[in-house]
Amino acid sequence: GGSCPQKNAEILSSQYGINLFLAGLLLTFAWAVHAVGISKSHLLSYLITLMLLQLLWMLWYLCRSCTQRRLIRDKDTHAGARWLKCGITLFAVITLILDSFKIGYYIDFSNCLSPTEGIFPVTHAMHTILQVYFLWCHAKDIIQSFKTLERFGVIHSVFTNLLLWTNGVLTESKHQLNEHKERLITLGFGNITIVLDDHAPQCNCTTTTLCSIFSQGIYYLYPFNIEYHILASTMLYVLWKNIGRKVEHHQQHKTPFKFHGITVGMIFGLIVLTSTIAIVVVYLIQIGHSKIKSELALTMFYLHAIFVLALMCTAGIVALLIYRLEDRSLDNSKNPARKLDAELLVGTAAGSWLLSWGSILAVICAQAHPKYTWYNLPYSVLVIIEKYIQNLFIIESIHREQEKVNDDIKTLRIVTISRGSTLSLTPSYKEIYNGRAARDSGEVPCLLKGSICGRENGGGGSKEETSQENSSVMHSASDFSFYSRNSVTNNKRRVLKNIAAFLFLCNLSLWIPPAFGCRPEYDNGLEEIVFGFEPWIIVVNLAMPFSIFYRMHSAASLFEVNCKT
């Protein structure tokens, strides 16, 4: 009977959050299309109000936690991993730099900007600091008191971060779109109407140099701000799902990250990362300056991406084949964090799949095909296949049970004194097992086949010595078989760890180009001719944020896989 009110509270809080998000989303859309009577100050005022309400709730929760710090609370050991907290802290620090740039930008243009544009970055900075502290201290909490109130507070925080993410995505996309429109002319697409969507202040800057630094720096920092808010919303969502949850108390094995044994994967991954950064720099320099340079930049990007994606597909297939050779059960226990990871992988991959299928159809249906557009076809096909394989590998990895080492197989060290010398022996599993059986029958196990057994037998005859030698040979064979199997298992594990490390760095590499403006879906122009300029731009602006998030989320999941393997 007690679960029904809590289920109703969960439904009510989720509906509250969805309506909160839809209202903000519609307000954001109205500002983006220059709706009559809607200005940026209205949108910022709404976001400021949401952030202040979340600040009040977090302060109340922290104060209540301090008064009850002596109570023993349940924790979700799978939620809020340390590496995830470190990642969100890094993004939060860069977000604070972004807020400082916005404050400086407001000061320089204060004569013609709304006061809300100065209040927003200050409120956002306070919100960021307190939220990161809250997540560090309470991301693992399983709330069992004031559950109805806490559900509304947590879900409010989830959708506040989602709205801040949406606002960041839209602002960054509008900037990218303006640059894209200016570059289209250089590729010869003069039939596309160029109308810049300008939200620049209508007054002069007090210090031109600082204004240029602030305005340009803001858009280079937005990708980190976008990742910060989406990571915060996912961590808060897990906290919301854990409210009132009953957990089984069992020992959680710590899985620290170690560089030992992943040298090969790290080396190849760093090569891919370095080459990707170089490609992005050259791409951003060359694109838009002339038609020839733009086509060379696109060709270079496609060839590099095809090579990297082919390597990633190969690595993923090898990992899946190793899993097929192993016989290990899957962990199907209830785990909100793991379930969310799997759903986000598949859901966000749909964004890049949509773009890839659009590019494939454009290449097939277009009447004219510039040479560089043919590279778009294998690139788009590989994007679909690579995500399919990688999702299978990650989801199976996070659901596989960790190997449990039997107490009987743990290493035992037996030290004895024989004729004045110290002997050390590590017995095999069969020796330990036979020793236990002998002990149960009242006999003493003969683990040391040298001086101890000889003294106990009193040196009695050649038959005993022959039997002892044969037994030693049999034990040596069993030892060799056991350590051989152990060696094969360790080799498989080492290969999997190297693959996970390589894919981790590759996903970071593929996150960089779209996050920092290297987007061939914008620049090759073929899709815009087939589908029309505005329809394709809408598709790209909707799908690209999910594609970018997929790479960062995959990198985080692969880091966890590397620690777990």
TrEMBL record:
The keyword Amino-acid biosynthesis does not apply. The chain crosses the membrane at residues 16-37, 43-62, 83-107, 119-136, 219-240, 261-285, 301-323, 344-369, 495-517, 529-550. GO terms for molecular function: proton channel activity. Keywords: Cell membrane, Hydrogen ion transport, Ion channel, Ion transport, Membrane, Transmembrane, Transmembrane helix, Transport. InterPro entries: Otopetrin (IPR004878). Its main location: membrane. It is found in: Cell membrane. One of its GO terms (cellular component) is plasma membrane. It comes from the Eukaryota. Pfam families: Otopetrin. It is a multi-pass membrane protein. The keyword Isomerase does not apply. One of its GO terms (biological process) is inner ear morphogenesis. Belongs to the otopetrin family. This is Otopetrin-1. It comes from Pygoscelis adeliae.
